[in-house]
Amino acid sequence: MSGFHSFVEELFAGLGPVRIRRMFGGAGVYAGDVMFGLIDDETLYLKADEALKAELRAVGSVGWVYSRAPGKWEETSYWRLPEAALDDPDAAVAWARKSLAVAEAKASLKRPKRP
Fold first, then answer.
1. What span, in angstroms and rounded, lies between the C-alpha atoms of 6 and 69?
2. Any idea of the CA torsion for 5, 78, 33, 16, to the nearest 10 degrees?
3. Are strands 72-80 and 19-23 parallel, antiparallel or unpaired?
4. Digit-coded pLDDT (tens) for 59-104
5. Any idea what DSSP says for residue 86?
6. Which CATH number applies to 3-109: 3.30.1460.30, 2.40.160.20, 2.40.50.140, 3.40.1650.10?
7. Which end of the chain, N or C, is less packed with Cβ atoms under 10 Å?
8. How far apart are CA 15 and CA 22, in angstroms?
9. pTM tops 0.85, yes or no
């Protein structure tokens, strides 16, 4: 685990147990079985719906974009944790709780897996 991954776990300690699982070129941040965060290039992003995106945009955050093909960029539902929250665990946890609520709501809409 990288030093940044350990930092994220400590930053979100007030949320309860979180785990970080490597995926593709980055890592997912989970509370239980729900992924609410994404780490890419030592930058932390949180899952957001339209309302949370607006809140994050208002404090200067930006969305995570990636390229599927040269010159083709796609925006995702993940937005960067505000810079000020990186130095304030209480603020980071408040943002994480909002993001986790979004992720849990989205997960509840998925069809249950077949046994």
1. 32
2. 60
3. unpaired
4. 999 998 877 778 777 788 999 999 999 999 999 999 999 999 999 9
5. G
6. 3.30.1460.30
7. C
8. 20
9. yes
